[in-house]
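Table S2 (text version). Query chain:
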Amino acid sequence: DDIAIVPAPQCKQPVEAKIDAVTSNSATLSWTSKSDETSWNVVARIGERVMVDTIVTSNPATITGLQHSTTYNFTLKAICSDVAESDVTEVGRATTECGWWSLPYVEDFKSYSYGSLPLCWADGEGASPESKNNWRIEYSRLYFESVDYYNTTGNSAAILSPIFDLTNEEGARLHIDLMNKYADTITISLS
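Corresponding structure-token output:
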């Protein structure tokens, strides 16, 4: 076994790094400095792809220019001088809030597991209280799981899709495929 004794790094890693807040296009990060640095390099990645690589001079720091509805992995390192910087500190992972989606948009529900909904889809207001949280995805289909499959009289179900930017989208169309296994009619209300 070899043992090496090396000098302590002059520029120490920030510690206690965390994500304090997330909006649809930004994330605010904070940390505790262990050196006398006054600037830090913050990187936001989607997977291995670098999306933002910026130098900040404040702590906490708000990183802007992020895409809505996207999961980022954040790292940072201290910059102590022109030649000295710290090792990388993992800050964490965060998903930006939902924003306005552009057209074209297609949701085929094929990449979600049972019981989950796609990003920016949610149980909606106006559903019968006993029917809340019953939207499911199974076998690449979105469906409403009624409390009582055979007695659907008076039940209502609401689901919220992402919000779409229809600016300059003259002639935009909405296509929905529906099936109702246990009732003769389906009423659709769009707002």
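Notes on Table S2: Confidence is low (pLDDT under 50) at residues 126-132, 147-151. The first strand starts at residue 15 and ends at 22.
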